[in-house]
Design goal:
This is Ubiquinone biosynthesis O-methyltransferase. It holds the Pfam family Methyltransf_23. Keywords: Methyltransferase, S-adenosyl-L-methionine, Transferase, Ubiquinone biosynthesis. Helix content is 38%, strand content 25%. It has eight helices and eight strands; from the N terminus they run ααβαβαβαβαβααβββ. It has an eight-stranded mixed β-sheet. The N and C termini lie far apart (34 Å).
């Protein structure tokens, strides 16, 4: 695993929580809460997921992957946390929603399946790997020319430290303490640069905000903390 773009402590962190992936009241509650927002935004951005070939990079327990399949996409989900994949496969059997889950790195998948997908999603993952640019390049290799690559991650600035770590982890207990590391956050300009270097053009940037009073999330134009970035592969 030493040559794979993965942080073993991050894998252990998510593996320890694997059984709770589909419990909407667990540590994964924020992912359940934001999933309809990001699903609808992805669906609208790519012109509809139905009959599109999609790969979810860093799929975890399959929350987004299943919901995209439910909209009619042919979905593959990949991850390097075996326990999370086991939960994803079990839930797929229970729900009857078919997703092809594979234990494989993004880089290896890209080498084996270059330009095979209409849409690539990589959500809440880049901030958990040692080399996020390598993941961006793998996603770009996976997608067909003119296809879509959708990322979501955390901005790096004093506000994001206050909101995503102090607020979310210590004050509001939205996610477990130690979930995020500020130095691993990625500025939109940095992600956009990695995307350009990989042959992806940025199409749209959306912020994801949380209101602690109403306890609701919403998409906005403020990407100062959480943000989603839609990119499109430049056709050559």
């Amino acid at each position: 695993m030493s040559t794979v773009n993965v942080d073993p402590t991050e894998i252990e962190k998510f593996s320890a929580l694997a059984s709770k992936w589909w419990d909407p009241t667990s540590e994964f509650k924020p992912l359940h809460d934001i999933n309809p927002l990001r699903l609808n935004w992805i669906n609208d951005t790519v012109g509809g997921l139905q009959q599109k070939k999609v790969i979810d990079v860093g799929c975890g327990g399959g929350i987004l992957a299943e919901s995209m399949a439910q909209l009619g996409a042919d979905v593959t989900g990949i991850d390097l946390a075996e326990k999370s994949l086991k939960i994803a496969r079990l839930h797929s059997l229970e729900s009857g929603i078919k997703v092809n889950y594979q234990y494989i790195s993004a880089e290896e998948m890209a080498a084996q399946h270059t330009e095979q997908f209409d849409v690539v999603t990589c959500m809440e993952m880049l901030e958990h790997v040692p080399n996020p640019a390598s993941i961006v390049h793998a996603c770009a290799r996976l997608v067909k020319p003119n296809g879509w690559v959708i990322f979501s991650t955390l901005n790096r600035n004093p506000k994001s430290f206050l909101f995503a770590i102090i607020g979310a982890e210590y004050l509001l207990n939205l996610v477990p303490k130690g979930t995020h590391h500020y130095e691993s956050f990625i500025k939109p300009s940095e992600l956009a640069r990695s995307a350009r270097q990989a042959g992806l053009a940025m199409h749209q940037l959306k912020g994801l905000e949380y209101n602690p009073l109403s306890k609701h999330y919403r998409l906005s134009d403020d990407g100062s903390v959480n943000y989603l970035m839609a990119t499109q592969k430049i056709s050559t």
